[in-house]
Amino acid sequence: MTSALRQIVAGPRVRHPEAKLDLCYVTDSIIVTSGPSQTWPQRAYRNPLDKLKAWLTAKHGDDWAIWEFRAEGTGYPDEAVFGRVCHYPWPDHHPPPFRLVPPIMASMRNWLHGGALHGGPSSSENHGKRVVVIHCKAGKGRSGTISCSYLISEEGWAAQKALDHFTKRRMKEGFGPGVSIPSQLRWVGYVDRWKDHGKQYVDRPVEIVEVQVWGLRAGVDVVVSGFVEEGKRMQKFHKFGPEERVVVEAGEPPRSGLVDTLLGLVGYPADKGSQQAESADEAGVERKHTAGEAGGSGGPGDKTRHEPAGRETGPAQKGQSAGGGVGDGIDKTKSKTGSSRSSSASRSNSVLDGEQPGGMAVVFRPARPIRIPNSDVNIAVKQRTRTHKSLSWTVVSSVAHVWFNTFFEGRGPEQGAEKADESGAFTIEWEAMDGIKGFPWKGSRALEKMSVVWKVAGDGDKGGEEIVEPGEGEPVPQVAAADWRGTADVEGGKGEEDLSVERLDDGDGDGSGDGEVLEGLKSSGPRGEDLVLDTEDGKR
User: Where is this region: Disordered (predicted)?
Assistant: First the structure.
């Protein structure tokens, strides 16, 4: 029964009457596995820890060690794997805090080159024999991001080659890429640039100046978040309120699609947006795709744009805003429509009571500075649509977010750590944002495009903290492990946003902590062959 359940959850090919362990060899020395467990009910559908240990010992003796990335908890104590585990946890469905990347790469390299697990000289006796065992929950997004990062930074692989190779080894044909979340792909692009320019990284506190949005639908909240507690948890630093929302150009693009049709059925009629869209185009508001423009983040398939920095940006500075035409467009629209706050008040009368107004061009300006303690920035949008007032329900119809790192968006690797831009703007289109719990689905369209204007926090001192990759044989810092029994309030677990129906007085939806779909994963050996394991005795 447990074997059947494990196969249903992991979705491996049925090649043997006994249950297979869900693992694959990315290379001869890198093994990726879904998160093992020694507790019920998880061990019924995850890799049983005792079976995984038995198999690793049978194949590799004492020459294996685990790298785990689970902020939600490993599911086992360190002593259960003989203490051979390194902890670098961060939340599910997100990229790692970039400051963790250099020590992760160094610790894996030192172990594979024969060094002690927690620092020490290399040993030629063990060089070439060891393996690293990488796991998160599913052994896909987080594990794939780090596996590809190691191949790029330590073994010289091209970024796309590493991503394609991981997909080939980890995923069944037709089930998509192994690393699929846009922000994680952006991080792989960052790692490629980090490697190409001397592995320089400076973690600097950041201030969010404003968020510019085009084609914003009504009822959308915008939230600024970042990593805290060494990356184990996400914290919401600011949620923009009604008084911080400036509608520069009123109106809203027309809705389309099944979700929007359903919203209309519950009392939220579609707007007639053709005339408004035309006026926005006349005012110079950019509505075209920006994919492929120079200066982007560099991640494969990235539909973002890095705007020239080193100056104050935003709608108030004509000709100096993000992307030039972007700021000009908002300014021209503002002069054409008159008072932006009057537009906001007018729009509020055309939506349901209490609903946040949308607009063809909207600027979110914080009443107080929004400071993030590091360079990793998360911007999330969530649309709540009210049903008819007699029902007292809201429908969460859109959920999306994006991560970016201001050191890389400020061209730090290319210009040198001391010359990285002090300010800039990160621009992204709706299609390129991250979806719900690792999936591409975001619900109905909440906006067309968004530009986040940022600057280094403080008085202009660009110091920050330099994060270097420890040399071979040098001690490598680790992060304190999350509670192995489980952490319920970690973003990406039970706290992650989802589409749902809520009472009007409900808080944010909890979502599901362990509902991750593992379908499409496969087990493969060092040469890419399908791996059939007899987990009863730990032998192949």
Answer: 269-358, 463-540
